[in-house]
Amino acid sequence: MPTTPLKTMVSETMKNCGAAAKLDDEGGLAVISPVTGETVAQLPEHSVAETHAAIARANEAFRKWRLIPAPRRGELVRLFAEELRKSKENLGRIVSIEAGKSPSEGQGEVQEMIDICDFAVGLSRQLYGLTIATERPGHRMMETWHPLGVVGIITAFNFPCAPWCWNAALALVCGDPVIWKPSEKTPLTALACQAVFERALARFGDDAPDGLSQVLVGGPSVGEALVESEKVALISATGSTRMGRIVGPKVAARFGKCILELGGNNAGIVCPSADMDMALRAIAFGAMGTAGQRCTTMRRLFVHESVYDQIVPALKKAYASVSVGNPLETQALVGPLIDKTAYDSMVTALAEAADLGGVVHGGEREQIGPDSAYYVRPAIVEMPAQTGPVTRETFAPILYVMKYSDLDDALEQHNDVGGGLSSAIFTTDLREMEIFLSAKGSDCGITNVNIGTSGAEIGGAFGGEKETGGGRESGSDAWRAYMRRATNTINYSTELPLAQGVTFDID
């Protein structure tokens, strides 16, 4: 494979991260950068047999790691955060190369990893259980939390490292080893992160067993082996709803645990009282950031008829003027789509919307770099109704805009889609805000007021409802998914009273 400037950048950046991996295995997995559409590395793939061997190593590591005190486990994560800070620029560059993100978004993803590590370090001293009132005198009842087992983490291309760390940082402090199967489109980021983690391991010392964190590069067969193995206690999978429909039943069939972070057809509502300048900025980032390739991307917008002619022209102007370009060479806000399949999906959705009476603004392909790179102008589509492609998630920068006159009707439409991840309302009316946050309001796992649908912080649990999968990762009490609960009753009396007044006397 001939050397190109981008391939040289990949090699140098991976070396800076400490990942001296073989990048030119001609028979392996081709890593294609969406920035230029060129192959920047070819990696050897793990086999199913190697996957099972990794699972066995992880289970052996679990036997040892679960016995290390949680605050000591937290020390490893603290050291990892230090190494991430040192490698933030290099890791961010790999993210930009593999996923096409702007430098600020690439480094922002690494910052998410640092943030969740900081959160997990504090959590390592707060894995609390409850003391529970008991009806029996001379007894004490409580719950305790114990390490769960091996955690298999399957990630998607659009966030190639942060979701892994959401899981890994919490799993490690909870006492669980992790096995990471990254997207076939972004394996270099995973290898670079693993190399940085191994630097932390070297500083941590002998308490960390072999096999505590492993990366498996490969296709569906590797993921399937993880999903079907009874020796993997928890599968955390990020991807499409279609993928979740496959993974969920397979894990359930073996009574394993699952965290599913799937699709989202996210919407915003612009009310008459909204701060229009604020709403404009929030909608623009939420809909165009990462070229529309976020699970939290704003894809639908309901605008009150009284302000429609105020905000929609401003949005169209922003869409027409936003910078689109190579994220490694320009300051462009919108980078490339991941590949031709993503581009074709966008073209198909726009054509279907137009056939249904939608007025399309933008959406054209931008000729930036080689023909093998797919850059597009983000699209706004003014739709007469929520129908056709509006009801589905297209992983591209398309924002469908519709008028509404009654908030209750807008909420009905807002909730009348499969996805239930993120949502937003723009209003300064207290009643509208509270209705949106109430039981009759948004049915999403993330419900925002006067901010967009994207940009969640690690302090709150991340995840959604309905076809989004129902899983929760990152902050709040998401740590419980990585542990098993035991309810304990201790009798310190000389009697044996039974609960509920049951008697069972024997001579």
Task: Considering the chains and any ligands shown, give keywords for the structure.
globular; alpha/beta; seven-stranded mixed β-sheet; Aldehyde Dehydrogenase, Chain A, domain 1; Aldehyde Dehydrogenase, Chain A, domain 2; 23 strands; 507 residues; 2 domains; five-stranded parallel β-sheet
Name the shape in a single word: globular
- Content-based structural category: alpha/beta
Number of helices in the DSSP assignment:
14
What percent of the residues sit in helical stretches (DSSP H or I)?
A: 25-40%
Overall average residue pLDDT: 97
Query: Largest sheet at a glance?
Result: 7 strands, mixed
Can you tell me the number of structural domains? Answer: 2
Write up this protein.
The structure is a single chain. By secondary structure, the protein is α/β, with parallel strands linked by helices. It has 14 helices and 23 strands. It is globular, with a radius of gyration of 25 Å.
